[in-house]
TrEMBL record:
Organism in which the protein naturally occurs: Haliaeetus albicilla
Domain (N-acetyltransferase) ranges: 50-197
InterPro entries reported in the protein's UniProt record: Acyl_CoA_acyltransferase, GNAT_dom, NAT9-like
EC identifiers of the protein: 2.3.1.308
Protein function: N-acetyltransferase that mediates the acetylation of the N-terminal residues of alpha- and beta-tubulin.
Homology family: Belongs to the acetyltransferase family. GNAT subfamily.
SUPFAM superfamilies, alphabetized: Acyl-CoA N-acyltransferases (Nat) (SSF55729)
Catalytic activity from the UniProt record: N-terminal L-methionyl-[tubulin] + acetyl-CoA = N-terminal N(alpha)-acetyl-L-methionyl-[tubulin] + CoA + H(+)
Name listed for the protein in its UniProt record: Alpha/beta-tubulin-N-acetyltransferase 9
Entry keyword set: Acyltransferase, Transferase
One Pfam family named in its UniProt record: Acetyltransf_3
Encoding gene (name): Nat9
Amino acid sequence: LHSERGCRRAPRGPVPFLGLAGDTEWGVGSLSLSTEAMKINQNTVLQGKRVTLVPYTSAHVPRYHKWMQSEELQRLTASEPLSLEQEYEMQRSWRDDADKCTFIVLDTERWSGQACADEDCMVGDVNLFLTDAEDPTLGEIEIMIAEPSYRGRGFGKEATLMMMSYGVRNLGITKFEAKIGQENEASICMFKKLHFKEVAVNSVFQEVMLRLDVSDQERRWLLEQTDHVEEKSYVELKLPAGVLET
């Protein structure tokens, strides 16, 4: 689990990284997300080899709420446990907030092969935060693999690459940042393998900041890494009668 100070659970607290961690042409115009509700992905499914990313809906809340009862996740996310009602309120705000984009991470094999419900295939979530109101092309990325049995198996890496690809192609992101606890060498190593460079150390929060500027070469690399990803309609796949959740 790695996150930023504007994270889902604790807007002011640093979050370390736990375990390991879309059909638009490149070069799409940047979106001014400060004036656009972040519902752009509400009908988007991104299906990869290991993971499938789906929009965060109310159906996912009970499983997410159960995750966050874990003392380990509370500690790592600097979070206080929420009631189930508060968790539903949090989900609604995350769907609508203009500075956040979130997907739930599913196990592709279970979800597609056995036709399981989303909540039975959930392994974590992945998010992008727009942290600079004056620069909508800068996104801070977080990935949480909440299910211990899925950590260290490449699920976080693929989900991160898929979210980066979606951010560049659909949200106009050209710069990524990640903040990771100084002691978490495995996670720092993973992001460096994704071409992030260490740019700063915050001794107060005991975290390392890594950054990736998406050059033309990096765009091509991201395309190569995610060329297997299929983009589909969530409505057609999961929701009855073709009606979006409100």
